[in-house]
């Protein structure tokens, strides 16, 4: 979520008033804002997408709740020591959190372990361990519409009789200390991005948030006029009309068997009725196609932790496979491919398959990704129910990612086209008429230059390096992962360095290359990549021949509040994943909206950015998905590229020889060995096209006016990438709810005083 103070002031229309009031108290609002800790309760794009969606849902007047876990320790703080990443605990609640309110009156029990008893009355889950879920509510204000939604985060608490009820005459002190075991569930965020780690505590976290949330939803449904009771029993027929649950990846997939357990075991609905309601309630968003990221839980673990849920999953699978066998008799391989249970070695539950079977809608997060989902990853399921599969291209909230982080640009745009674009970003298209307006071109360039100067000062303060603010700010910030190919960027840096040294008198367009992002603590290769970047930076930044022509900075502890500083100052946005690996990306959209040009592959939402702005206004290079597939078919031979490309060979030989690590010459042998022998992401195959494309970037940067025209065309084409548009599509195509642009009257206004909002209808 990042910080909340400035976002709240903007959405409430109070920023100027607060700035002025704080100034009159002799304080500086910006200094105050810097004191607030980021709420870093997710890993990367997935968690930030949820935050943007919450902002858009409130702004569109949807009655929506965001549910999650109130981690005591969020994503680790990253320190760079001697070029290596070192993790520190993120004790973000140390000074308290003024934005949350504990709601102990809504505390709920969550059960684990135990066993299942079957009787004529049905199944009963007994002898369980109980953990209490304590909700904390954080307000989510819409933009200037007096709507405030709720983000409800669950914290784990041990019941007061924990370890004391069971004939435990024994150690009272130890029993109280053991309360930690229960409360550890919400202690810490697992720091993996795009990687599945099948740990028991992680499964406990996933079920904990699901079980508490579903009880909360059902309590709210029963309290509403729709949860009518027939004598004693609630009638759930209208449940899917009143409740829509979106599964943000497979992490909350246990919600499907859990809702079935509630309906069948507790509410005593017949199976088929319960299953019909369940399917109509859930929809699933897929966020990755990397096989190592797909959740596949061992059956033995689920059986121990959630025995009733395993039975329900088996039952769902049996009915699912019976259905397929009736459509495709004798096709045993299809049954194996489509089963929720993977046999062979340890039996596992494929959570994505569970989500597809248990949902009425499945979507990818960019056109190209949704196609890959349909035609490759889940092709059997799409063949069965093509109408179930959709696309919903991701978006970003223009409130945080323009108004808040880039007030200069936001104001300049408002001067030209008015302020309505903040709620309807498609209006940015009106900027096309100013693409040849010399004054506007100069103003856009001036705002960028001011942002660069401000960020350069920040860098000099934090990193003690002198930055040339007129150099091109070339920025690559995202989680560190092989598929995102920070290594390819690193090879380009080495290539630029070698070119400067080869001919120091030749014209070179000065660059400041900024790379930032966290590596999962257990991801050895990602940590080596960080060390390599820092080793290269050390050599480049201290070479007098290079001087101010090239500087390399690794941005420590990349997070939302740092993104808000670096993105508005960026000239060139690096979006260089191997085609077919980045589901969408959202950083790409933030840079586009903030006046950077993109160098990127035809991957994720880059494809649609090129479609909107015109491919000639992005720097697109490299293999397309088809080329990658073809290269896989014929076999990728990295050495062939090494042998053919002298500059690539030189760069690799320098890494191998210890040019960048003279004290430990073979420090990077694992990295080089990977690049030659098991590089799934084909860095060498795109190196030449990347370097050539970067030459075109430098050439254009020399012509400030031509560069800025492309910038304006990009900003004017960024409207599609508002999360407001994304959420309107979810609301229309999946949730079947109507956004309301009614402005609720302010608390100090009479109830009938809601005026029309600029694009709205009368109350």
Automatic annotation (TrEMBL):
Annotated Gene Ontology cellular component terms: cytoplasm
Entry GO MF terms: glycogen phosphorylase activity; pyridoxal phosphate binding
The protein's enzyme class: transferase
Keywords tagged on the record: Allosteric enzyme, Carbohydrate metabolism, Glycogen metabolism, Glycosyltransferase, Phosphoprotein, Pyridoxal phosphate, Transferase
Cofactor(s) demanded: pyridoxal 5'-phosphate
EC number: 2.4.1.1
GO biological process: glycogen catabolic process
Pfam family, one: Phosphorylase
InterPro entries cross-referenced by the UniProt entry: Glycg_phsphrylas (IPR011833), Glyco_trans_35 (IPR000811), Pyridoxal_P_attach_site (IPR035090)
Ranges where the record places region Disordered: 741-763
Catalytic activity: [(1->4)-alpha-D-glucosyl](n) + phosphate = [(1->4)-alpha-D-glucosyl](n-1) + alpha-D-glucose 1-phosphate
Modified residues (N6-(pyridoxal phosphate)lysine): 590
Subunit structure comment from the entry: Homodimer; enzymatically active. Interacts with PPP1R3B; recruits the phosphatase PP1 which dephosphorylates and inactivates PYGL/glycogen phosphorylase.
Role of this protein: Allosteric enzyme that catalyzes the rate-limiting step in glycogen catabolism, the phosphorolytic cleavage of glycogen to produce glucose-1-phosphate, and plays a central role in maintaining cellular and organismal glucose homeostasis.
Family affiliation: Belongs to the glycogen phosphorylase family.
Protein name per the record: Alpha-1,4 glucan phosphorylase
Lineage, opening ranks: Eukaryota, Metazoa, Chordata, Craniata, Vertebrata
